[in-house]
Every structure is written in structure tokens, then in C-alpha cells.
Amino acid sequence: MSKKKGQTKANLLKGIFVENPLFVSILGTCPALATTKSLEAAIGMGILFTIVLICSNVLVSLLRKIIPEEIKTPAYIVIIATFVTMVKMFTNAFLPELYSTLGVFISLIVVNCIVLGRAEAYASKNTVYDSFIDAVGMGIGYTLAIMLMAIFREILGTGAFSFGTIFTFIPYFKLQIIPKGYEISLFTTPVGAFIVFALILAVIAFIKNRKTELKNYRDRQEKIRKAQAAKEAALKAQQATNEGGNK
Amino acid sequence: MLDKKKIILTSIVLGSIAACSGVLIGVTNLITKDRIAINEQNKINEGMKAIFEQNSVKIEELSLEEAGITGEYKYVETFYLVKDENGEELGCAIRTSGSNMYGKISLIAGFDKEDQSFISLSLITNEQTYATTLVDNYINPLNDGDRILDDVSCGATYGAKLVRDMVNEGQEAALEYFN
């Protein structure tokens, strides 16, 4: 039971950290660059993406023994496109501001490599529960990743955080972080998105490399320590033999 | 090579998935269509208020024939007669829709009754890939009076050209109504 629980936790965390779709697998970059101008839009995109991913993963897993190998890809595309269309219609009806802000990028979830990739690589081979957990992990991982990008872009590009323009059920508020006139509007443009994305990837690569270097350094130290200990032991044994011989 | 049985089975499976998808989308459409129509009407009302700078406006939808617009137009869809709270005519608005390889745009362009000139526009749907660039670099400056419709020099050039053509066509239709 606890082994199963541990597996579930690992499956969930895998999508958030180890196999983060955006920062590790570098998938789904197009919407990530286009919808991270504001934190609110990024949250909206993340939620819609997660809903589509969960629904498609669960259904693909449910039908994995029924769908013949030859028509796997077209069947998955039909399933994903159905959920995207439904999500699009619901967003247009109940969150029109989010629909206007994300525009064509809601429809483009259909061609997001993460959704089709998870259906093909994971959901088609695993149980419904595992596929659900995988989708939740990947969805949260992607949402957190685009939120991180949006935080940098909104603060640097507009100097403030504003809420309530897209999710109109939240009262509008604006939090000025950088004094007016000091914001760099470049960060709200596609160029700024690429810069932020590149910087985040560079930081992640730096942390990863540092960890590897540190591990290698520790391994080397351990090897040296062991070699020295062996040398000392040999020396002691030699001394003991010599002393025995002298006596 | 696939045998007959296999071909029939794959067809049935794919057909069933497609049929279920159709049913799901149909049900979703039934649930959302009224709400979407209300949202679009609200958007049109808000757009009219913004164009004519009024707190409330009365909108009368007329067919192109009723408005005396007989020319052949590519983008013009609907004609609106816009009046203020007291029923006094402020001008007219033309809804135009068009699309290019970057997506669809639907907008309302408002025209003043007095000098028969273009006032500003309001976007109803903007499904262009460069949607935000188009709004930031072209529509907003255009509505602020900073840009002449014939001049296109923004990042989303193709979207801007489409908007320009739609507004120009709307203006032709409006002039037909005024005269």
C-alpha cells in the first residue's frame, strides 16, 4: 500500500520537477511564449491545458485496449480535439475575457506536443489511475512553469501585477512593484518572452551542472579518501611485518 | 496486409470515437450557445458605448436592404443604427468579418452622422495568431487617432491590412447609407 502511495507521489512529482514538460523536455513552448504576458493569462492557460490533458489521458487510458495500433494517432487526435473544442466553448461562455485574451492559443492546445505525447507515451500503456496522476503532475508542472515566466515578464514589463481583468469574478487590484517609468516594456513583447525563457533555462542548466559537478567532486574525494585509507592500511601492515621480522 | 475483419473493426472503433465526440460537442454547444450569444451581444453593446462615447446607447439592427445599402461587399455583415438615450441618432455602425491565413477578425466600425467620418472600432472576435500585437500596435493607436487607415507599419502587418480593408469597406457602406 505504502509502495503504491510512494509510486503515485513519484509519478506526480516527476511531471512537476524531473520531467517538467516546459523546462526539461522543452515541449509546448509556443503557447508558453505567447500567453505569459500576464500572470492571470498564464494561470488561465495552465488550467485549460491541465483540464484537456487530464480528460484526454484518462479517456485514452480507458480505451487503450480497444483502439487498434493502426489508428492510434488519429483516434488520439479526435479525442484531444473534442476536449479542446469543449473547453473552448465553455471558456467562451463562462470566461469570455479569458477567451478573448488567449484567443487562438486555446484551439492550439490540440497540437500541443505534451498532450499528444503523454497520450502516446504514457496513457496508452498505463492504468487509468496512473494516467490521471501523470496528467495532473504534467499539468501542474506546465502551469507552474508558465506562471514563473509570466511573473518575470509582468513585473519587468509592466512594473506591476494586476488581477481581476481576466478572471472578472475576482475584484480588480493592481500591485505596483517597480516604480512607474522604470518598467522595461520589451519584456511584454515576444522578444522578452524568449529572453525570459532563455534565462530560466540557463539558471536550470547552471543548477543541474553544479549538482553534477558537486557529485563528481564528492565521488573523487571519496575515491581519494579510500585510496589513502588503503595506502595507510598497507603501510601499517608493512610496518607490522617489518617489526615482526626484527623481533 | 490488413484482413477484412481488421479493417471493419478499425473503422467501427474510429467511427464510434468520432460519433461520441460529435455527441459531446453537440451537448456542449447546447449548454453554451445561449450564454455565448449573450456575451457577444454584451460585447457589441460595450463596443458601441466605447465608439460613440456614451453611457448607454440604443441599437437598432437593420438589414442591408432596409438601410439602403445595395453595393456588393466582401466583409460587410450587419448594419446598426445607433441612437442615444433620448432616441437621437448618433450615427451608424457596420459589423464586418474577414479572415486571412493568420485567423479570423470580426469588428464593429462606428461612423459619425454629422461629418460621416470613421470614429473608431471595436473588436468582437480576434482569432489572429498575432492578436495582441495587432491590438497594441494597430487598433489602439488607430482608435486614439494616431494612425491613418491607409498606413500600415506595425508588426502584425497582414492583420492590420485586413482591418484596414474591413474598415474601408464599412465606410463605403456607411456612406451609401448616409447619402
How would you describe this protein?
The complex is a heterodimer of chains A (247) and B (179). Chain A contains nine helices and two strands, in the order ααααααααββα. Chain A is mainly alpha-helical and 247 residues long. The termini of chain A are far apart. The model of chain A has no long low-confidence stretch (mean pLDDT 93). Chain B has helices spanning 4-52, 131-143, 157-178; strands at residues 58-62, 76-83, 89-100, 103-112, 118-126. In chain B, helix 2 (131-143) crosses helix 3. The interface between A and B is medium-sized, with 26 and 28 residues.
Explain briefly what this protein structure is.
Chain A has nine helices and two strands. Chain A has helices at residues 2-18, 29-34, 39-62, 72-94, 96-102, 104-107, 113-123, 128-158, 190-246, and strands at residues 160-163, 173-176.
Annotate the secondary structure layout.
The complex is a heterodimer of chains A (247) and B (179).
Chain A: H1 2-18, H2 29-34, H3 39-62, H4 72-94, H5 96-102, H6 104-107, H7 113-123, H8 128-158, E1 160-163, E2 173-176, H9 190-246
Antiparallel strand pairs in A: 1-2
Chain B: H1 4-52, E1 58-62, E2 76-83, E3 89-100, E4 103-112, E5 118-126, H2 131-143, H3 157-178
Antiparallel strand pairs in B: 1-2, 2-3, 3-4, 4-5
Query: Which regions of chain A are unreliable across 5 or more consecutive residues at pLDDT < 50?
Result: none
One letter per element, helices H and strands E, the order of chain A comes to HHHHHHHHEEH
How many strands in all of chain A?
Answer: 2
Tally of alpha and pi helices of chain B:
3
Oligomer: heterodimer
When the domains of chain A are counted, the total is 1
Main sheet makeup of chain A: 2 strands, antiparallel
Arithmetic mean of pLDDT of chain B: 87
Shape category of chain B = elongated
Q: Summarize the amount of helix of chain A as a percent range.
A: over 70%
Order of helices and strands of chain B: HEEEEEHH
